[in-house]
């Protein structure tokens, strides 16, 4: 376990020389905004159900009302939440480096509300619904309806998120891969690195000798360049890295 200040200073020095920074975020970056992560035992979303139950096509087909109720509840929580210092630090970093590609697994929209632009949403968004008939996207729908329907054709709407067993949006995935292959610094923030294909991105960056930071609550704090790992809260650590 290395000294936290030393590891932060060493990584920040490399960040100052970066040409292209790629950032992958997961549920952990929104934890300090009060949004539960997936794997937190006491509050994790998955502590109440199996992902196949709700976040899957089969789960939706089995019980669309239950699934819509779950996403509607999460959308209300995301709207009520505020971006935290971690989101703002990444929005600020975007102005400090020549190029930054922000890739998120999150569907809460907090990066955009913190001012980040061109956010690559690998797993979709709570703030969009998709028509099951023609695939049209909708950013508003009748929130009072337990089973919302397309205002244009009347077909059932589904949340515009990627469920388990579903392909990720091709364009988003290609942009994420391209940034991972091109970047000289890759920052993985607040993700357990369980869900593929997002989980492979830091490994791909490391295999190409990019400097990689992994920041979550499981890592040991250590500087083993080009790999830096920090055990800490994103809302506390990122503002110290992005001065
Ligand atoms: C795919 C949207 C190709 C929905 C999500 C069998 C059949 C089919 C596929 C598979 C299969 N077996 C495996 C797979 C692949 C599967 C997968 O990876 N499964 C896992 C469970 C093993 N992947 C897929 O299905 C993907 N599609 O592969 O398509 C395909 C197609 C057909 C057949 C074969 C292949 C689609 C995956 C996308 C699923 N949708 N979200 C919704 O949100 O409801 S995933 C969802 O879970 C999130 O988006 C996120 O990606 C993931 C949760 O991960 P994290 O974000 O990391 O959150 P987690 O709670 O795990 O960790 C939190 C972290 O934060 C921790 O590390 C913690 O320490 C840290 N933390 C906490 N607080 C803080 C903090 N860090 C810093 N500061 C803090 N304060």
From TrEMBL:
<dbReference type="GO" id="GO:0017136">
    <property type="term" value="F:histone deacetylase activity, NAD-dependent"/>
</dbReference>
<feature type="binding site">
    <location>
        <position position="74"/>
    </location>
    <ligand>
        <name>substrate</name>
    </ligand>
</feature>
<dbReference type="InterPro" id="IPR003000">
    <property type="entry name" value="Sirtuin"/>
</dbReference>
<feature type="binding site">
    <location>
        <position position="234"/>
    </location>
    <ligand>
        <name>NAD(+)</name>
    </ligand>
</feature>
<feature type="binding site">
    <location>
        <begin position="105"/>
        <end position="108"/>
    </location>
    <ligand>
        <name>NAD(+)</name>
    </ligand>
</feature>
<dbReference type="GO" id="GO:0005737">
    <property type="term" value="C:cytoplasm"/>
</dbReference>
<dbReference type="InterPro" id="IPR026590">
    <property type="entry name" value="Ssirtuin_cat_dom"/>
</dbReference>
<dbReference type="Pfam" id="PF02146">
    <property type="entry name" value="SIR2"/>
</dbReference>
<feature type="active site" description="Proton acceptor">
    <location>
        <position position="123"/>
    </location>
</feature>
<dbReference type="InterPro" id="IPR027546">
    <property type="entry name" value="Sirtuin_class_III"/>
</dbReference>
<feature type="binding site">
    <location>
        <begin position="190"/>
        <end position="192"/>
    </location>
    <ligand>
        <name>NAD(+)</name>
    </ligand>
</feature>
<dbReference type="GO" id="GO:0036055">
    <property type="term" value="F:protein-succinyllysine desuccinylase activity"/>
</dbReference>
<feature type="domain" description="Deacetylase sirtuin-type">
    <location>
        <begin position="1"/>
        <end position="243"/>
    </location>
</feature>
<keyword id="KW-0520">NAD</keyword>
<dbReference type="InterPro" id="IPR026591">
    <property type="entry name" value="Sirtuin_cat_small_dom_sf"/>
</dbReference>
<keyword id="KW-0808">Transferase</keyword>
<comment type="function">
    <text>NAD-dependent lysine deacetylase and desuccinylase that specifically removes acetyl and succinyl groups on target proteins. Modulates the activities of several proteins which are inactive in their acylated form.</text>
</comment>
<feature type="binding site">
    <location>
        <begin position="216"/>
        <end position="218"/>
    </location>
    <ligand>
        <name>NAD(+)</name>
    </ligand>
</feature>
<protein>
    <recommendedName>
        <fullName>NAD-dependent protein deacylase</fullName>
        <ecNumber>2.3.1.286</ecNumber>
    </recommendedName>
</protein>
<dbReference type="GO" id="GO:0036054">
    <property type="term" value="F:protein-malonyllysine demalonylase activity"/>
</dbReference>
<dbReference type="InterPro" id="IPR050134">
    <property type="entry name" value="NAD-dep_sirtuin_deacylases"/>
</dbReference>
<keyword id="KW-0963">Cytoplasm</keyword>
<dbReference type="GO" id="GO:0070403">
    <property type="term" value="F:NAD+ binding"/>
</dbReference>
<comment type="similarity">
    <text>Belongs to the sirtuin family. Class III subfamily.</text>
</comment>
<dbReference type="InterPro" id="IPR029035">
    <property type="entry name" value="DHS-like_NAD/FAD-binding_dom"/>
</dbReference>
<feature type="binding site">
    <location>
        <position position="71"/>
    </location>
    <ligand>
        <name>substrate</name>
    </ligand>
</feature>
